[in-house]
Write a structure and sequence with these properties.
Order of helices and strands: HEEEHHHH
Number of strands: 3
CATH class: Alpha Beta
Bound molecules: zinc ion
Number of helices: 5
Strand content: 15-25%
Radius of gyration: 15 Å
CATH architecture: Alpha-Beta Complex
Helix content: 40-55%
CATH topology: Sufe protein. Chain: A
Length: about 150
């Protein structure tokens, strides 16, 4: 019987090969770029945020299987989250990368990356898209504040 680690490997490979959310959005609310010079991973992420909710996420980039699979897992789970829930999800993923125990249901397929916490050189690969998301959410919030109520 395959163990949990094998199952997680399969999930990572599946997301790497069939990336969810890869591409561009028509009219993104926020766009961010991040890179991880340690590995050479680069990512461009686009977010559509409407009524305080993440409506859609798209990403393009190049890099190792961990960074690309992680972006796919993130993009699959984020749409439908409120901005606060999205911040929370990013925070929990960070905690998982620092070796903390996380409730499976909170992160969807991204839970499969928990083993990466054991490989410090790869943690930045896994975190890249999540760091980009955090930056995008902060940009969205500060834009929303400076635009007041939009009038
Ligand atoms: Zn990498």
């Amino acid at each position: 019987m395959p163990g949990l680690e094998d199952l997680y490997q399969e999930l990572i490979l599946d997301h790497y090969r069939n990336r969810r959310g890869e591409g561009h959005l028509d009219d993104p609310t926020v766009e961010v770029d991040q890179n991880n010079p340690l590995c050479g991973d680069v990512i461009h992420m686009e977010f559509k945020i409407e009524d305080g909710k993440v409506a859609d996420v798209a990403h393009t980039g190049e890099g190792c299987s961990i960074s690309r699979a992680s972006a796919s897992m993130l993009a699959e789970g984020l749409p439908g989250c409120t901005v606060e829930e999205a911040f929370d999800r990013v925070e929990r993923f960070r905690q998982m990368m620092h070796g903390e125990e996380i409730d499976d249901e909170d992160l969807g397929d991204a839970i499969a990356l928990q083993g990466v916490a054991k490989f410090p050189a790869r943690i930045k690969c896994a975190l890249l898209s999540w760091t980009a998301t955090n930056e995008a959410l902060l940009t969205y919030q500060s834009d929303a504040r400076s635009n007041g109520d939009g009038h």
